[in-house]
Amino acid sequence: xxxxxxxxxxxxxxxxxxxxxxxxxxxxxxxxxxxxxxxxxxxxxxxxxxxxxxxxxxxxxxxxxxxxxxxxxxxxxxxxxxxxxxxxxxxxxxxxxxxxxxxxxxxxxxxxxxxxxxxxxxxxxxxxxxxxxxxxxxxxxxxxxxxxxxxxxxxxxxxxxxxxxxxxxxxxxxxxxxxxxxxxxxxxxxxxxxxxxxxxxxxxxxxxxxxxx
Length: 213
Description:
- The chain is α/β, with parallel strands linked by helices.
- It has helices spanning about 10-20, 40-45, 55-60, 95, 100-105, 110-115, 155-170, 200-205; strands at about 5, 25-30, 50, 65, 85-90, 120-125, 150-155, 175.
- It has an eight-stranded mixed beta sheet, with helices on both faces.
- The protein is globular.
- About 45% of the residues are buried.
- The protein starts with a strand and ends in a 6-residue tail after the last helix.
């Protein structure tokens, strides 16, 4: 069975640990405070979820999730994620992270910054434009009228294929925004951000997004 390593145990990381373990994956989750701080979460989620350090989660992962604040990007282990698909859930909150000039100027994307930090990994944007509480609720079977769609973006088709499968298993359609250079279309202050939308609506929202909101 594939192991999912989650680096970051905030609202999104915790919700994804619940989601992936519910799909039958083994999950190793970490945060900046140490495994012991995750004892309550691990106990609640059951035996398929264990806590570890970020280094250990990265090493254990067949597929990884990075869900840390942008300002903590440089703390993400690099070598153990080499060659692996890495889901990036991040958004740019300058109020929290401080200003990144390349993002303020519209010359970079948050997922692109992670890809630069993990040059040998296969970074894919995922789970960044919905509330954490929506990850494990509000799903619909494939083909259902009004089924919610979530976006993704990557330079690696196999990464988009993996995310598409996970979205579908959790009850969501998938719309790709294209390569990582287009992942800004899914981010904060754009039309697609934290809006419940169908695949057609998501495509429309991606198309009308401005690079600098």
